[in-house]
Amino acid sequence: EIVLTQSPATLSLSPGERATLSCRASQSVRSYLAWYQQKPGQAPRLLIYDASNRATGIPARFSGSGSGTDFTLTISSLESEDFAVYYCQQRDNWWTFGQGTKVEIK
Amino acid sequence: EVQLVESGGGLVQPGGSLRLSCAASGFTFSSYWMTWVRQAPGKGLEWVANIKQDAGEKYYVDSVKGRFTISRDNAKNSLYLQMDGLRAEDTAVYYCARDVVGATGWLDYWGQGTLVTVSS
Question: What pLDDT is attached to residue A29?
Answer without folding.
Answer: 97
